[in-house]
Amino acid sequence: xxxxVVIINYGMGNLNSVKKAMxxxxxxxxxxxxxxxxxxxxxxxxPGVGHFAKAMENLREMNLLDTLHxxxxxxxxxxxxxxxxxxLLAQRSEEGDAEGLGWFDAEVVKFTVTDKMKYKIPxxxxxxxxxxxNSVLMNKVPELxxxxxxxx
Length: 152
Known about the structure:
Blueprint: E1 5-8, H1 15-24, E2 29-32, H2 35-40, E3 43-46, H3 52-61, H4 65-74, E4 79-81, H5 84-87, E5 90-93, E6 98-99, E7 104-108, E8 123-128, E9 146-151
């Protein structure tokens, strides 16, 4: 029996943390770079830590792009991008001046702040969120919940 969720290993992810979370939730999952596992799964997680251009290069070299496009855009499988994985869904990034998967009409850009005493970059630590728009993803998340952020 195939795993319900495939966690894509393209050499740049926090794979074991994601796998442990799936195990804790009792969700059948595997870590894989095999395109057939993506085809056989019900859902996809694209984690990531690192450089945007290198991540896209790895996905290309591992022949994962066509299967990703088919699985998500044609077969409409749900995908969750975590950290760099979410950034890769955009059109492009200024980090490495690279093209992304192009699924979102967006460009990933570094934060520009003028008050560096008030707003530290990179932002690292716990912060409360304010929900600006209703979404299924945030449906049961209370207003002012705390999340850990590490980004720039």
